[in-house]
Write a structure and sequence with these properties.
The chain is α+β, with helices and mostly antiparallel strands and 447 residues long. It folds into two domains: 112 residues, 3-layer Sandwich (Rieske Iron-sulfur Protein), CATH 2.102.10.10; 279 residues, Naphthalene 1,2-dioxygenase Alpha Subunit, Chain A, domain 1 (Alpha-Beta Complex), CATH 3.90.380. The strands form four sheets. Strands 12, 13, 14, 15, 16, 17, 18, 19 and 20 form a nine-stranded antiparallel β-sheet that branches. Strands 2-3-4-9 form a four-stranded antiparallel β-sheet, with no helix packed on it. Strand 3 and strand 4 form a beta hairpin. The two termini are 42 Å apart.
């Protein structure tokens, strides 16, 4: 762009207007459009290891709650303040069945019903008329999930196929970030940031191959959407598809992938949920997956994975000194620095933001459909043992002498994506074989 066509500089004075937050997508408290949508799904609220002998205060979706395990081993999640006079149940006495408020002895079961109203007689109408707010809890692979929606709409608990990858172990983790949930979640559909933030701005933070220019496209899936990243790596083509599982889950491929050898339908390294604490804080909770296939050079470190910790750089404030984070920022710095709630009306989005725009449209459409009374779509296993997902890495040799560019790369990525999407009704053991058969054969995209 020549100087003659550039807008004039020093425009700070004219760029100070006050803009409103995109409340429809970012506000999550009770009764808000996005909050109502998120409440229709099972959400992880804590790691099992965080729940000890004493009740634990948690804040989720703008609600103050107490999480505990009673003497019979059942997890409970109740509103923090006792329905009687408001004392916090964090000081409650865990009973064999439920929890007892320390103040006046009101005894609640894990569903919030009153077992005994302290000194009130058993026939007191209190026991018939009062109930403490409570949510169903499901314990699964070291995580505690809760459902915050209308109890009459309780959906089945979903199990995803990535949880059952062979020869793979999982480790729960959680990370707290002081910003709105959406700016963390939409980062997963912004693959161009990998090239700049994780390779060129801060040096190589993940695999060096991630710093290669790629062709990027997007597709909707039965669960939400994927991005399709296609890169030329020496004499090979690497196609990665990254899942967004609505409303707030994500799967991504091997952290240190270098695409150094052919592979087909290599699955994901992480399944995580970006769970709003409230409008300006988020807990990312999920599983980090480990297997030799995902980590050829032994760079994974399960010992670093847990509460407020994970084994790759740039995910929390406390992992590095501030000056180092300034010189080599990561996801945490980029996301938190957008403001506590990113102001969409002040953005100047470009063509590289197509994935972010698409994700916002999908979320807005679902939020408005719920507000209009339409049923909320839940993950569908299609009659299989687990819900099929779409995150994977496929690497194949390029048989031509010329390096693939442009439309050749785009066609290769589309072919892999078509096979990934078209195989989701197959059993897991059949899916890789189907992808190999479909993407293989003759021509420039032969495996």
């Amino acid at each position: 762009m020549s100087n003659a066509t550039r807008p004039p500089g020093f425009q700070g004075y004219h760029r100070t207007r006050i803009a409103q937050e995109d409340a429809e997508l970012t506000h999550v408290g009770p009764g808000t459009p996005c909050g109502e949508y998120l409440r229709r799904y099972w959400q992880p609220v804590a790691m099992t290891e965080e729940l000890g002998a004493l009740p634990r205060v948690v804040r989720i979706l703008g609600e103050d709650l107490v999480l505990f395990r009673d003497g019979s081993g059942r997890p409970g999640l109740l509103h923090r303040h006792c329905a009687h006079r408001g004392a916090s149940l964090e000081y409650g006495i865990v009973a064999e069945r439920g929890i007892v408020c320390c103040y006046h002895g009101w005894h609640y079961d894990i569903d919030g019903t009153i077992l005994r109203a302290g000194s009130e007689p058993p026939e007191s109408p209190v026991c018939r008329n009062v109930v403490q707010g409570a949510y169903p809890v499901h314990e699964h692979h070291g995580l505690l999930f809760a459902y915050f929606g209308p109890p009459e709409e309780l959906p089945p608990f979903p199990v995803f196929d990535s949880e059952r990858m062979p020869d793979t172990t999982r480790k729960p983790f959680s990370l707290t970030t002081p910003c709105n949930w959406l700016q963390i979640y939409e980062n997963t559909q912004d693959p161009i940031h990998v090239l700049h933030l994780h390779a060129r701005s801060s040096g190589v933070q993940f695999g060096a191959a991630s710093g290669i220019d790629q062709v990027i496209e997007y597709r909707d899936t039965p669960l939400g959407m994927i991005n399709i990243q296609t890169r030329p790596v020496d004499d090979r083509v690497w196609v990665r598809t990254v899942d967004s599982i609505l409303p707030n889950a994500n799967q991504t491929g091997a952290i240190w992938e270098e695409a150094e050898a052919p592979k087909t339908f290599q699955r994901c390294a992480m399944l995580r949920w970006m769970v709003p604490v409230d409008d300006t804080a988020t807990r990312t909770i999920g599983w980090r997956f480990f297997s030799p296939r995902l980590d050829l050079r032994g760079q994974d470190d399960p010992e670093q994975v847990g509460r407020e910790s994970i084994d790759f750089v740039g995910q929390s404030e406390g992992e590095r000194p501030y000056e180092e984070r300034q010189r080599q920022p990561g996801d945490y710095e980029a996301q938190v620095s957008q403001r506590p709630i990113a102001i969409h009306d002040l953005e100047h989005r470009a063509s590289s933001d197509a994935g972010v725009a698409r994700l916002r449209r999908l979320l807005r459409r679902r939020i408005r459909a719920l507000a209009a009374g339409e049923p909320v779509p839940q993950p569908d296993p299609f009659g299989l043992d687990a819900v099929p997902t779409y995150c994977q890495d496929t690497v194949f040799r390029w048989p031509e002498s010329d390096r693939p560019v442009g439309e050749d790369l785009r066609a290769a990525g589309r072919r892999v994506a078509d096979a990934v999407l078209g195989s989701d009704r197959l059993a897991p053991e059949q899916r890789e074989a189907h992808l190999r058969e479909t993407v293989g054969g003759s021509g420039k995209t032969a495996l």
